[in-house]
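Technical note accompanying the year-one report. For the benefit of new consortium partners, we illustrate the data format agreed upon in the data management plan: each record pairs a sequence with a structure-token string. No post-processing was applied to the example shown here.
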Amino acid sequence: MLRIGESDKDMLSRMKLYEWYDERKVKSKKILLVGAGALGNEAAKNLVLSGYKKITIVDMDYVVHSNLSRCIFFRKEDAEKHRYKAKVMAARLSELADVSIDFYVDRVQNIDENLMKEYDIILGCLDNIEARLYINARAYHYGIPYIDGATHGMVGKVQVIIPPITPCLQCSMNVTHSKVMEKRFSCTGKDVSYFEPNMPSDINTTSIIAAIQVQEALKITHGMENYIKNIFYFDGSRNFSSILEISINPKCPNHKV
């Protein structure tokens, strides 16, 4: 017999009201989260609060004061002491729930790519095309679902890549993307290869894109077929969102047999 208020003792009780939600499946999945900035903060928070327990964070930067308006896990003292984002996030996420959080303070390109084989889903929360394409290629090669998120001011997008079913990130790349491949945008200026003035950024757009990323991760975890098969596009300045259709590019190197 269930007592009144008994279910509220379970952190995931509201999630379990969904008939499709399987706590065991969610807890068993290993998630690789690349990028611990604004988008990464929101995505990590949503992953943990959705029940994911095994998360690895990769990021090379340290916290700066401009992060504080968009990153829930960073504090003023983190910026003053130049603490690394990935390390801070790992510690603060552990305060939300009983989770196992690993982290690497490095460029994702420097991480042993064999480690990627261990993960069930990869979330990209990055600020440069080069790193995103690096993950995209390896995730596609190893058959790992990759959920790529990006924001630019009040505009954002999410692309879900399911090898070999959907187009990959590189399928929709164009000449303009190629020209900025080597750009490296960093809050700290560490290892920057290109300088460009900061763009406007707000927590609201970031929260929306990160929420869609984790929602898609839940769909994939539960074997649902209604995941985003193209690109989810959001423009807050125009109160507009849509699905942009893309096709597999036969010339894309990730699809060559």
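Partners are asked to follow this layout when depositing records. Confidence is low (pLDDT under 50) at residues 175-189.
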